[in-house]
Request: fold
Amino acid sequence: MSTSTPTETRSQQIFKAANPTTQKLIKALLNAERGVMHMKRRDDIHKDLAQIVKTNVTKA
Amino acid sequence: MILERLVVENFRQFRGRQEIVFADNRTRNVTLVHAENGFGKTTLLNAFRWVLHGDDGLTDDFEKPEEIINDVEARSGRDPNEVAATVELTFKHDQERITITRRLTLAQQRADHRKTLLTVEVMRDGQTFNNVAGPQQKIRTIVPEGIAEFLFFNGENIDHLAMEENSAKVAEAIRVMLGLELLKTTINDLKHPNVRGKFVKELRDNTSEEKQALLDEQQAGDAEIAKIGERRAQVVKEIESCDREVQLIDHKLEANREAAELQLRRGRLQTEERELQTKRAEATRRLSRLIADDGYTLFAQGLVARGREIVTALRAEGKIPARVLNTFLQELLESGNCICKRCLEPGSEHRQAVENLLTIAGDQEFNNAVGALDHALGLIGGVSSKTRETLQVLNAERLELSMQIRRVEEELEEIHQKLGAKNDNQVQELEEARRNHLLKRDALQKELGRLGEKEEALKTRAAEIKKAVDAIVESEEQARLAQQRMDAVDDCIKTLEEILAAEVAELRPELNKEINRHFKDVIDKDYWCELSDDFKLRARKQVISGSTAEATDVAANTALRQSLSLAFVGSLVSLAAKRAEIPTILRGLSGAVYPVVMDSPFGSLDLGYREGVAKMLPALANQVVAFVSSSQYNGPVEQVFSKGGLIGKRYYLVYHGPVLPAEARQQLKIEGENVQLYQQSAEEFTLIKEI
Reply:
């Protein structure tokens, strides 16, 4: 359960309330997207996102 | 982004090399370009859009985008590799001076007009970097494509942002201008078949037949929902197009002597109709709320009467209020002492006497319950009569409003018939075309409704399928892993969507403050603006009814919607500048200063609105560039600008051609000086002149 401080935004609370895997995934996914956000062609982004999920979710 | 200079060379009707240097003074921050209709205002606006984003950046109303190079130059017979159109834009951004140059040769225009030569030069710390690598990407980091339409736009068309069906556009504008598009893009990419779909496929390939069938249905449903989304966007665009056409026709009818009076009457009636419809919708909303909250009381009469009978009978039997309560007696027995101080020892006759009373004592909880029931019955009775009364009033109000709306609709039909019967071909044709556009619009609106219903049904089914899929436990490891990965993607999508909604919700109060700051410049009535939770831009007013005051929507005409939309754009530009000060989960969101460049900001506004918009304009952004015709400028706009000392730079476009376009003026008086707007010439071209 997350504890909120007065300076935390609602979106930060939502993020902290997510499970650790989701938090880790979101950071990695956003980093990947940030790298290509201004490009017209983003041919590899889907492959990269799928790979990030595979790398972070490894055990059934 | 602080604009310094725009240079156009052989770009459409701008023949030869022409330039505009922009005002950059903080108080005199308006650059005004006077231009009659047909002289090149739209082309000049598109020069900005083209230099930034090429063919992709051009506006929908830019005709023949495959003909960029000036006609006369293109037909000159010179080497097609030497004949070219060029637009160059110089501006300051983040400690850099940047010059973007986009060039299209005649040879290339003939082969593929979309392939242009783009160069970006950057001056930083006294050093110049020519031919910066990845020029288009560099431009996108400063002015992403999604932002351009909110910074460089036609003022006459901007009112669409304040139309109910364009709330998605408003949401997009907020995300794009205020740096949240990264979240949306990530969500969309996660939902893509090559990401989520990949894990769905892996799961499908390793799971039971039952789950396979569900997953197949899920994928089909998702594809259908995506298709509906695309069609909906298309329909909204078509509705906008119909509205623009009808607006154009209305202007033409107003300008026609035969039709003017009837058309003006129609305009007033349409405003009245919208107000009545808004009031009726409000009455319906209040009725729905009443029925939802208290409607049950109308059907409770029988129950209330029966309840009262039961309570009365219990009273008559002496059961309520009970003369002695069981809880009281039990307390005495537990304490071992009676209220008369006699000892209630076990086995004593006093104790026996008290224990005997328990058989006739009233139950505490029962008494409390009956007391509460009696009270509730009284309340329900009271609410029931008030509800019935209010229901009658609201129904009468709705009926009256419906009758008034019907009356207005009949008058509008009468006007349509009269205009259609006019002995003037142009009026007949315009009226016929108008009716056709309205019929098309109605059909599109209905389609929008059907698409919404279908989407809702599909989403409900999708939720059911997901539940069913989740309920099936996987026995095979590979299937389990694929399921986990799919769930992880879904969790990320859900969390990101919540984060995006929360980020936008945090911005809404700031936006509303800014929108109202600009809006007050235009409207001197007691209206205010509101950006609702579902991204509808509305003007609101207080309506006093008896002793209560209620906020209600103002029925918005085109002028009000245009003012709302301009105020909204201004609020986005203000917040974009101070983005770094607003808390956000995303790192690296710094402020960005943007100009606003508008073609015809006074559009079809009447004089009252023009004065207000003229006052609002300079405050919209650090730099404002506006292209205005003489009919828009004369009168209140001229007064506001002359009095305020707001204009830092002033230009006018001089059209050269064989014939002066209809409704264009040859001359214009600006600051006491007569300027020639038209020169007769065998060839057609436009020159930019500074005042």
Q: What stands out?
A: The CA atoms of residues 33 and 45 of chain A lie 7 Å apart. The interface with chain B takes residues 7, 9-12, 14-15, 18-19, 21-22, 25-26, 29-30, 33-34, 37-40, 45-47, 49-50, 53-54, 56-60 of chain A (CB under 8 Å).
